[in-house]
Each structure stands twice: as C-alpha cells, then as structure tokens.
Amino acid sequence: MFGALKRSLQRQRHVQLLSGLRDTQTPWRHRTQVRACAGTPAAQRLQDDCLVLNHGGTSMHLNYVWLRDHCRSAASYNSKTNQRNLDTGSIDLSIRPESSTVEDGHLVLTWPGGHVSKYSLSWLAENSYEGKQQSTIQPRILWNSDIYQKANVPSAQWDTFMSCDDELKKFLQNYLLYGIAFVDGVPATVEATEAVTQRVSLIRETTYGRMWCFTSDFSRGDTAYSQLALDRHTDTSYFQEPCGIQVFHCLKHEGTGGRTLLVDGFYAAEKLRQQSPENFELLTRVPIRHEYIEKTDNHRNHMNGIGPVLNVYPWNNEVYLIRYNNYDRSVINTIPHDAVQRWYVAHRELTTELRRPENELWVKLTPGKVIFIDNWRVMHGRDSFTGLRQLCGCYLTRDDILSAARCVGLQA
C-alpha cells in the first residue's frame, strides 16, 4: 500500500489519475454554468465507443451505455419521483444505437429492438463530463477581512427571518457565497436559538448533545470549555463526515476579550494552489487522522476520522472541504517516511496563509447575534477572555441546508 501511495505522491499532477482531468496547476476559478444557446446548430457522429456531439461551444464524448442508462422515456425514468425505472444491470455493455439524429433541439437515438431515446441538447451540455469540467458546483466569493468588510453583507433580522421566505433566501445566498451568515435580534435564550437554526436545517446531534450551552468550566475534555485563546480550526475533524454547520450564540458575557476569529479556508487554499500547486495537490491526497479522546467522570469518547486536509472534486478540482485542526490532529502514520517532510512543508505553507493578519475577520458576538459558520470551509477561533461567558449553539446537517437552498432556486 505504501509503495503505491509513494508512487502516487511523486506524480506532478492529479490529471494523471484520470485521463482528461484538468491541469491542477491552473487555479480554480468561478465558472459560468454551461448553457447551450437556442438555435445553435449541433453536429454529432457515431464512433466505435461513443457518440461525439458538438453543441453550444462544447464538444462532448457520450458513452453508449451511459446514454441508454440516462434515457428519460417513461419506460426508463419516472418523472414524477425523479427515479430511474431502467435496470442498469440489464443493459448490454456493447450496446450501440442503430441511428442518431438531431431534431428540434434534441438528440434522438434509436436502439436495437426499436426503443427510442430523446435528450435535450442543453441537458446533455450541462450533464456531460466536459460540461461539468467547466462548471462550478457551488459559486462562492472567497474573502479576506478587507473583501468581506467592503461587501457590507447584511444580517438577517429575527422577526422577518422567521416568517418571510424572501429573507430566508437572502440569508441562504449569503451563507453559500461567504460561508458565514448572521441573524440579529434573536432572543438570548437556548429556545430561541434552537428555533432560528431549525428555520434553515436539521440539528445534528453529537456526543455534545443536541443543543449545547457551556461556559469555561472544563465540564468536557476539550479546550473550548476554557478561557484560553483558540487558534483557527474546523470542528469535528475527528468525524468521518465533519459537521456541516456550526452555530454560535453568546447569551451572556460579563468580562473582557472573547472575540470570535473567522478565516476563509478556501481563500487560503486557493492562494496555496496559485503559489505552490504541488503542495496544494499533496494536501488533497495524503490521508491524515484526527482523534478525539475524552475520559471524564461523565463522558467517555474515542472518535477517529481520516481524510486529507483539502478535499476536491476530481472532475473540476473545486475545493469542497477543509479539515484543519492542529489540536485534534493525531499521529501521522498513514504515509511513508519520505513523504512526511513534504507534507509538513505543504502544511506549513497553508498555515502561513491562514495566519496572515489580513485574512482574519474578528467579530464580537453579543446577545441577540447568531452566527452560522460553514464548518467545511470557514475556520473559527477566539481571543482569551475573562469573566463569565455563556454560549449556546449546535451543529446542523449540511445536506439539509443545501437542500433548503436548492428548493428556493439557489445553486448549491
């Protein structure tokens, strides 16, 4: 296993893993979703192993089994439930259409046995591999402190947020673009905080409970339950699937300090990609363990999560998840010795970018201000503080907040 990983680490580009992937030295940028223009003539030809279709500026290579599997006829697909009827296991793997033509903006294929499939050209352009290579899964605005502050992103207001779908949509749009969003005017209670979170997603119950409320009493085996400063980090990196959204509400603070630190991890990752593409690639492929061990009178836990620091979609190299927690990172024993030094160099370069003062956004949480943080993207930390400081919050499921965004017409 180590020999195979070693050889993989020596490769210069991720494109060598799958033919046709983009050169990883090209920084990822926001792209416009591929849309075929109405009236654009399409050209198609049948080859031995695929159909080649040129439409709307996109040249697509469409596998024949893939085309049959994605037929949208009533016999093959249930449009009411959006589920496949066709048994993929019954498709002849050597299938090839007997004829093909383009009619009224659709590709029309006739298969052996007489079955006819019709595909919208725009649908094919959007759903082909070539189309996905040129598109972004989730549009984002990457930010440092100056960029975010100049954007003047408004907070949602509790009264309208809880009753107005337009206010919810604006909130979700800000959350998707920036990875953080605020609701102001929330009553300073655990109950009101729970209500505002359930407006956007489902609460993810963990070993910390459903809704938690804590002070610096060391009631759990975690430095968060102290008055110490915390460096930037993502939470639950020791879960196989880290929690998607972190919610904080400061209910009370009778003292000084305690500002919240926010850093856009994707902004730093893109800087690393531009400056050192080899180091960026290394951090996307080396699996690292994170661990949470708790042994107190009331709690016993041993969590273990494994994954690279940076996670990217392989077809377009878009970053979708960062695991960065120096407190909970476990022993590095998943890579051969001659790759360890290179990993530390790459990690140090990312850390340097994350710790640049211009990338730090400091926010003072006060009673009534609830913050939602994309835990897969934005890191949080805090100043040390004095006095009684009481916070409540929870984790939310990522799938459900993305679903809520799509249901109001947002790309997520």
UniProtKB/TrEMBL annotation:
Keyword Phosphoprotein: no
Pathway membership, UniProt: Amine and polyamine biosynthesis; carnitine biosynthesis
UniProt entry keywords in alphabetical sequence: Carnitine biosynthesis, Dioxygenase, Iron, Metal-binding, Oxidoreductase
The EC number(s) this enzyme carries: 1.14.11.8
GO CC terms: mitochondrion
The protein's enzyme class: oxidoreductase
Protein's name according to its UniProt entry: Trimethyllysine dioxygenase, mitochondrial
GO terms assigned for molecular function: iron ion binding; trimethyllysine dioxygenase activity
Domain Gamma-butyrobetaine hydroxylase-like N-terminal: 56-124
Cofactors that this protein relies on: L-ascorbate; Fe(2+)
Reactions catalysed according to its record: N(6),N(6),N(6)-trimethyl-L-lysine + 2-oxoglutarate + O2 = (3S)-3-hydroxy-N(6),N(6),N(6)-trimethyl-L-lysine + succinate + CO2
Organism: Seriola lalandi dorsalis
Record's function text: Converts trimethyllysine (TML) into hydroxytrimethyllysine (HTML).
